[in-house]
Design a protein that fits this description.
Shape of chain B: globular
Helix content of chain A: 25-40%
Order of helices and strands of chain B: EHEEHEHEEHEEHEEE
Radius of gyration of chain A: 17 Å
Strand content of chain B: 25-35%
Oligomer: heterodimer
Structural class of chain A: alpha/beta
Number of helices of chain A: 10
Structural class of chain B: alpha/beta
Largest sheet of chain B: 7 strands, mixed
Strand order of the largest sheet of chain B: 5-4-8-9-1-10-11
Strand content of chain A: 15-25%
Number of strands of chain B: 11
Radius of gyration of chain B: 16 Å
Number of helices of chain B: 5
Shape of chain A: globular
Low-confidence stretches of chain A: none
Largest interface: A-B, 29 and 40 residues
Largest sheet of chain A: 9 strands, mixed
Chain lengths: 233, 219
């Protein structure tokens, strides 16, 4: 695992980064979040996670890039986990589109995993935003990535699983998105793959089949927040 | 089917179609409600805002008679199965209403034992039928004795009312003597030209159509 030096880190409570959270959102929210990058705080929206396997197929990688580009063009901020495969494809497509992206790390912000994404992490820290819930110096453990996946669901208005096996970490994010009442989309070709059981199970709990990125746009909140509702009765 | 016409009330309205500043705002409010997020001014959860605003204007709202001192509020399950500790917006709205003194208590006795297709993502012809909804519900918890006389099903959004009519019938099987009515925080307006404003309190009916096994909502 590579080190990226000691970047200038901002420490925030989740509500400072995301706005106030309801009790369902607070249940697995980390107590603090560490960020590096110039993106404004609280985070702009809408934000969509594009996630999936590290060992993705060429078709999966292409789909991640295509979905990321399509959403980026509409002003959506692409969130992913900076892992190999689908995550990297999603981040890079957003950057190539001239849009914005957020990397949510399973390591402290001064570490890079996988090492070959050192340059991508640096670019995201310089021009976008990297977030971690793990303090610099804390050990990198397997369970960190499960916790990170839940946090990524919390940060995202919707999540898209592009490709994932039965044991993929992306499924943790999928279940958490459903628990939070956020939209979870599963790419159509995965839903139709008879070798996977998890898509059908998640669809019983509210996941949707993704046929077109436009479906995602329909569920997203506007970039402008409603501050006040006035009703006349 | 015991109940073929269900009385309902609703408070707000939105249209999934069309575009204008008012339509866009109402749709945004719907999304805030579906996630039960905080409003900024005042900083208050959407479910609490709904309850507080209804309480504030209750004497002028057409659906006020739904809520009596002894009314039991039963949140309506969504179309999907639910994990533990999940966001359940109708339950949160029901709880917020009781917290401001509207209704006696919340009894979460209805659950989905099997998922049904989401109406919002289905063509009208593919939406789940009323009997399919009824078969997917079960009554999990018996309401304590004496049996309630007044029950109001609480939902976040009413579209055609098939879910609410089915839920009312499932409940009525378990509690045949109770008067069952429904309340939805928001009413979906299919034709955007019929959309008037976010605040559009109404009372109306959901009527069963046996030949098609579907429902008509008025208004």
């Amino acid at each position: 695992m590579e080190s990226i030096g000691t970047p200038k880190i901002t420490t925030l409570a989740p509500k400072e980064l995301l706005g106030p959270l309801n009790d369902v959102e607070r249940k697995f929210a980390p107590s603090e979040l560490f960020t590096v990058g110039p993106m404004e705080i609280p985070l702009p929206r809408p934000r969509v996670s594009i996630i999936g396997s590290r060992n993705a197929s060429p078709e999966g990688l292409a789909a991640a890039a295509q979905i990321s580009s399509a959403l980026s063009k509409k002003g959506v901020i692409i969130v992913s986990g900076l892992a190999e495969g689908i995550d990297t494809s999603a981040h890079k497509a957003a950057i190539e589109q001239g849009s914005r992206t957020i990397a949510v790390l399973g390591t402290p912000l001064n570490r890079v995993y996988p090492a070959k994404n050192w340059q991508l992490q640096r670019e995201i820290m310089n021009s976008h935003l990297a977030i971690s819930q793990f303090r610099v110096g804390s050990p990198v453990q397997r369970k960190n990535f499960v916790m990170r996946n839940r946090t990524m669901a919390l940060i995202s208005d919707a999540s898209i699983i592009v490709e994932a096996g039965e044991t993929s970490g992306s499924l943790h994010q999928g279940w958490e998105a459903l628990r939070l009442g956020r939209s979870l989309f599963i790419r159509k070709s995965i839903v139709g793959n008879p070798s996977f059981k998890w898509p059908r199970k998640m669809m019983q709990y509210g996941a949707l089949e993704l046929r077109d990125p436009k479906q995602v746009l329909e569920v997203l909140p506007s970039s402008k927040r409603i501050s006040q509702i006035t009703v006349q009765i | 089917m015991r109940i073929t016409v269900l009385d309902f009330g609703s408070f707000l309205s939105y249209s999934p179609h069309g575009a204008s500043p008012d339509i866009d705002q109402a749709r945004e409010v719907m999304k805030i409600m579906k996630a039960d997020q905080y409003l900024e001014k005042p900083q208050i959860l959407m479910s609490d805002w709904i309850a507080k605003t209804i309480k504030q204007h209750l004497d002028r709202l057409p659906f006020a008679s739904l809520f009596k001192e002894n009314t039991i509020l039963v949140p309506t399950p969504g179309s999907s199965l639910m994990q533990a500790n999940s966001l359940w917006v109708p339950h949160r709205i029901a709880t917020a209403l009781v917290n401001v003194g509207i209704g006696k208590k919340v009894v979460a006795c209805l659950v989905r034992k099997t998922a049904v297709r989401k109406s919002a993502w289905s063509k009208p012809s593919e939406r789940p039928k009323v009997k399919e909804h009824i078969a997917s519900f079960s009554v999990q918890e018996l309401i304590s004795s004496p049996p309630p006389e007044e029950i109001v099903l609480i939902d976040d959004i009413i579209t055609r009312g098939a879910t609410l009519l089915a839920a009312a019938n499932r409940l009525s099987d378990a509690l045949p003597k109770a008067r069952i009515r429904a309340f939805a925080a928001m009413r979906s307006i299919g034709n955007s030209s019929d959309f008037v404003s976010l605040s559009r309190p109404v009372t109306g009916t959901v009527q069963y159509r046996p030949l098609k096994d579907d429902t008509i909502r008025r208004p």
